[in-house]
Inverse folding.
């Protein structure tokens, strides 16, 4: 089986871009200059993705300040609210606040690279859970995400769903949202990526969703699980964003082999980690090399 | 000592020269002339908080860049490897621990000495980032690389325990000892990282005790945004802590009273002070004095002892504007006074 590689989350900004955003905030450089530096940085990420022969490329989504930010800018009835801690990290997102059903009003394509072949979106369930969204339904969110998918014309879509874990009880709602997306976009390749939780207790529910690939943190996966995954593809987060020491390639390869042997998926994707932006840029680039090495068997 | 004393809890925004000119004039603050912007800010923050009428204050951490980066600048055995986003376009330099961490120099003493020149130390409460949070917010490369399998949960846990103890012993304790030598006697240990890992309370408590046990000061522990119930009863083993300074207001809804968790202290017969979070620092809505008063009175009922309560914001107010900060803290002081009259 061919191993496919990809970025699966926001990529950190290079140091010169961090400095440029600071300079812009302090009114030391113009919007045009900042845009120019964003473009340069995006080209650098695209180049890195190509060097490692990633099967889908993203450009790193460098303009996104958190996974919800574009939508609070370009959807009506949606605004960026208070800073809120993003799960167990020392990073924060601005909580989206809905005053009514969201609809696309701005230009979504301003937020994604023109070369991107993989669209990474917050999943509708995570969006609903982490936003202030009492007055809207999960389908309202799925529908607004659908407008973005349509505009992007990208045919590999990945939904980030860190809010789905073993405590999740709203499977009926999740199913409705993903059915809606599948009905609207039957022909695109859809991936749902959960992190950083152990998916074993919820593997049956995930399998029942109409997606092509289920992505998860492979270090959390337990091969004791009895469920076969032969009807779907799997995506494995296989590097660790919480340390900067070199990864143990042979150990990672062995784990991948074990999981593939055990689950017999019909597709295998490996990605660095949805939370690679917990690392500085240079360290994150080092992690990407691991994917290239595994893909080409340099272990 | 009066009931419901009020206190600030952590960092404030870094005021610009314009902020200081506007509020200095508006509040008639007697600001001193300093060449150094940090010293100006420190002076402004102290006088800003004092003018509102808080009982215990600090300088809004004007001398510090960020609560993890600041200590790591003074630690041998840790290197900064680049910037990681905190939020929006705000980044902090994240450290990688590459060897046994040892303090180069106590990193709060100069700041404390400066502040005591401006302010009577009887009203000061100095925040110090705790060992658990310092460990959580760095890359633990050294101790993980000492383990046989860098990916196993057991190895990770073991490496984390080793780092917390090393930081407590070699970094935090010498820092606090030096602060005490310089007269500090009210010290708040900040452990926000515990908020996201309540299952690691035992480790955080051990780190705390190793940092402060036997030292002569009034220690509090600040934690925020956690499932506090999960920290019980392990948290109570922090025997050297005299005050639990926690966030509450942020989680209040029409259906949920966050102060009800205080009943656990009663249940466990724990009679230590509570630093009661009554202001949500994540929203611009200004809590009225009546709301603050109501929160204090509710908490008093759950504790059965109003004397245990000190009143503070949930956390540092650094993400709010000066106008919002002023209104919120002013209402907090008035609300505490209302509660005093009502009870």
């Amino acid at each position: 089986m061919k191993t496919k590689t990809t970025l699966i989350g926001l990529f950190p900004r290079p140091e010169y871009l961090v400095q440029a955003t600071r300079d812009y905030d302090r009114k030391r450089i113009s919007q045009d200059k900042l845009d120019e530096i964003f473009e340069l940085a995006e080209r650098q990420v695209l180049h890195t993705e190509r060097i490692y022969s990633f099967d889908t490329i993203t450009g790193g989504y460098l303009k996104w300040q958190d996974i919800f930010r574009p939508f609070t800018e370009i959807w009506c009835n949606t605004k960026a609210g208070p800073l809120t801690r993003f799960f167990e990290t020392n990073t924060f997102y601005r909580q989206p606040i809905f005053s009514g059903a969201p609809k696309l009003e701005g230009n979504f394509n301003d937020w994604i690279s023109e070369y991107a072949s993989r669209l990474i979106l917050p999943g509708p369930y995570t969006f609903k859970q982490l936003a202030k969204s009492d007055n809207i339904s999960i389908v309202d969110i799925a529908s607004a995400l659908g407008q973005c998918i349509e505009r992007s014309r990208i045919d590999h879509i990945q939904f980030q769903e860190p809010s789905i874990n073993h405590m999740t009880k709203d499977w009926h709602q999740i199913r409705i949202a993903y059915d809606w997306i599948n009905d609207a976009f039957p022909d695109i390749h859809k991936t749902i990526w959960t992190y950083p939780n152990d998916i074993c207790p919820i593997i049956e529910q995930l399998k029942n969703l109409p997606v092509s690939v289920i992505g998860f943190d492979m270090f959390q996966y337990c091969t004791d699980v009895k469920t076969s995954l032969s009807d779907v593809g799997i995506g494995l987060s296989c590097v660790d964003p919480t340390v900067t020491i070199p990864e143990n390639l042979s150990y990672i390869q062995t784990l991948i082999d074990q999981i593939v042997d055990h689950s017999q998926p019909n597709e295998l994707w490996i990605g660095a980690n949805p939370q690679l932006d917990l690392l500085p840029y240079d360290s994150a680039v080092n992690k990407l090399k691991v994917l290239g090495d595994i893909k080409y068997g340099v272990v | 000592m009066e009931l419901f004393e009020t206190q600030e809890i952590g960092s404030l925004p870094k005021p610009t020269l314009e902020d200081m000119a506007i509020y200095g004039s508006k509040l008639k603050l007697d600001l001193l002339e300093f060449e150094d912007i940090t010293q100006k800010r420190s002076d402004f923050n102290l006088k800003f908080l004092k003018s509102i009428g808080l009982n215990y204050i600090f300088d809004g951490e004007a001398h510090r860049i960020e609560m993890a980066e600041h200590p790591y600048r003074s630690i041998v055995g840790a290197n900064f490897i680049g910037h990681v986003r905190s939020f929006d376009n705000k980044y902090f330099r994240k450290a990688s621990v590459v060897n046994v961490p040892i303090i180069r120099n106590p990193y709060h003493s100069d700041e404390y000495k400066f502040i005591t020149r401006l302010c009577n130390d009887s009203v000061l409460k100095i925040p110090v980032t705790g060992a658990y949070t310092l460990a959580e917010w760095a890359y633990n490369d050294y101790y993980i690389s000492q383990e046989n399998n860098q990916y196993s949960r057991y190895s990770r846990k073991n490496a984390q325990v080793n780092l917390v103890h090393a930081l407590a012993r070699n970094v935090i304790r010498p820092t606090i000892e030096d602060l005490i030598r310089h007269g500090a006697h009210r010290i708040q240990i900040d452990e926000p990282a515990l908020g996201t890992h309540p299952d690691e309370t035992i480790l955080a408590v051990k780190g705390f005790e190793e940092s402060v046990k036997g030292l002569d000061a009034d220690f509090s522990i600040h934690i925020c945004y956690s499932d506090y119930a999960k920290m019980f009863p392990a948290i109570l083993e922090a025997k050297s802590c005299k005050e639990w300074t926690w966030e509450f207001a942020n989680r209040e809804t029409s259906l949920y009273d966050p102060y009800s968790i205080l009943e656990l202290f009663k249940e466990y017969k724990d009679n230590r002070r509570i630093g009661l979070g009554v202001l949500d620092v994540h929203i611009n809505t200004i809590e009225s004095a009546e709301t603050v008063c109501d929160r204090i009175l509710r908490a008093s009922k759950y504790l059965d002892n109003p004397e245990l309560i000190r009143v503070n914001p949930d956390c540092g107010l650094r993400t709010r504007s000066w106008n919002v900060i002023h209104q919120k803290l002013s209402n907090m002081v008035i609300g505490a006074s209302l509660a005093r009259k009502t009870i």
Q: What stands out?
A: The longest strand of chain A covers residues 92-104. Chain A is about 35% helix and 20% strand. Chain A touches chain B at residues 12-13, 15, 18, 21-22, 24-25, 65-66, 82-85, 87-94, 219, 240, 242-245, 248, 251, 255, 277-283 (CB under 8 Å). Residues 31-51 of chain A form the longest helix (21 residues).
